[in-house]
């Protein structure tokens, strides 16, 4: 973007400025010995055309909606349509969560996002001894189709898109969503939404795992194949960096491991015999919006450029839609503080702003109380209003990718790309992401980064306002949402009644069919849809898989 | 007892997979000179108590971030008592709302460290409270 001559002139001026600065610093030194991002990437005092002398507008940036999509995946971006405001919601039973869904939609939310409780996420029913004390606590409890029907009561499933954050039993939840829609007369080709369905990041970071990696990948590939043919508006995998970051990774690690996971899924589907352009357009991504503003903006921009190049050059994708990195963002839960909790509203707003300026397609803003419990209605309303203020009040959506061309932002975008690519090359050398996970490589890198950051916080090198600086003796308390123990009881009663009333011969036949398909190569999805329609429970299906494939247990490294 | 011999069990009860805090504490305690056993994830209270007794630990640290602490933490104390191992002190950490802390302490949890507590606080607490 600059001529050699113009950069040379800048270099001369830069040297003059360095002398000026040196004099100034003799009198008054800088505040810190070293300036770095929250990920510990060192940042220089100033960025100039010298830092982006290699940047080629056509090749590296281009226009929104044009390869390599650095400036955005659609031509009109947020001037055309704002991002989907999608608040992650789920608590207690299906009744309570359905009420929250309606509340959010009545207040301007434009898409649904479902949080499940731990037993559902891990493939256990509410009546399992392992579920004691956990039913409905951190999300909604779903045992059978009966719960799902209550969850989506009076929700227009042909109009609203729904994201379901679930992994080992993702295929079962998709089957239940299809069954619920079909019972309402909405055919499967009309529904839209996302299942997270990203097991690789579970092994790496979030640790909600059930089966070993290979069978997990097989089930995921089944869902991708099935969606491609039968549920064309469904995002079959939401390839997630969010949890990698929450587990303590740096921004570069989040970017690198997420795209390495993406490569792993595309590779598995190609090996299944699918054409890359048939399924890749329905892969979506999910990133964290952490507190370091510019690092995050650079991360999103680098992610789009990297994925476009990976899909075109590595996988030979022809359809531009296969090259688009469309992503959902959630502000960083781990950045919220229990101390002075109202400060969380401010943190969340800046984080949300970084994702909007970074070109997100969908956003969840955390509520101020989410560091302590699921959000109250009052807190979630402020979180939703934060997005609406960014979208419609403060003017940042008037133009597309407004930070492009800033020397710092472009230099940081390049740095994120080159350092993340170095990680991806290293993982390729190990034999791919499954091998890397098997030897604990990403897990160890993340644990090291988390420990490094904690040490910096403990030493006061990294500041968390209200925690290690500007502390107060607080009397201020926020109201918290609690889950009534009646939910667990009601859930068990409903499940018992269903087990008594359903056709047990049909249930047995469905489970046998799933077992046979699991041992063979038949796509599991049609069997799962059939089973959930017969009120086979989540745990019954997962127990069948645990029997066939065995369980994955935590190696417990620290 | 000399400090280097203090043996700590760090455990993750229940189905919750958030292990960032537990692993940082495990590593921090090891760096501080304690002997640390980490159970890994998804342990039942029964498994944790059995490990504690089998490993003959001096103190147990448990972490929960998914809201099930009010059942899981007291259940561990109950089982330790049943097995006659109530002399092993138990501390907890994670996402624990302030109002729950007195209830857990009454149930026998000796200390609770919530997010924002430096690792050294746990180290000091163990040095001062575990003999």
| Basic shape of chain A | globular
The total of beta strands of chain B comes to: 5
Q: Report the biggest beta sheet of chain B as strand number plus sense, adding barrel if it closes.
A: 5 strands, parallel
Rg estimate of chain A, integer Å? 24 Å
Percent range for β-strand residues of chain A: 5-15%
Structure in a nutshell:
Chain A is 51% helix and 6% strand.
Detailed description of the structure:
The complex is a heterodimer of chains A (558) and B (131). Chain A is of the alpha/beta class and 558 residues long. Chain A folds into 3 domains: 4-52, no CATH class; 57-458, Alpha-Beta Barrel (TIM Barrel); 486-549. Chain A contains 22 helices and 10 strands. In chain A, the strands form 2 sheets. A 5-stranded parallel β-sheet of chain A has the order 1-10-9-8-7. In chain A, helix 9 (213-230) packs across helix 11 (251-272), helix 13 packs across helix 16 (407-430) and helix 20 runs parallel beside helix 22 (538-549). Chain A is globular. Chain A starts with a helix and ends in a 9-residue tail after the last helix. The mean pLDDT of chain A is 96. Chain B is an alpha/beta fold and 131 residues long. Chain B has a single domain (3-129), classed as 3-Layer(aba) Sandwich (Rossmann fold), CATH 3.40.50.280. Chain B is built from 5 helices and 5 strands. A 5-stranded parallel β-sheet of chain B has the order 2-1-3-4-5, sandwiched between helices. In chain B, strand 3, helix 3 (69-82) and strand 4 form a beta-alpha-beta unit. In chain B, helix 1 crosses helix 5 and helix 2 (45-55) packs across helix 3. Chain B is globular. The relative contact order of chain B is 0.20. The model of chain B has no long low-confidence stretch (mean pLDDT 94). The chains are: A alpha/beta (558), B alpha/beta (131). The A-B interface holds A 118-119, 121-122, 124, 130-134, 137-138, 202, 206-209, 246-248, 334, 337-339, 371-374, 447, 450-451, 454, 457-458, 464, 467-468, 477, 480, 483, 553-558 and B 10, 14-20, 22-24, 26-28, 30, 36, 38-42, 44, 66-68, 70-72, 75, 95, 97-99, 114-116, 118-120.
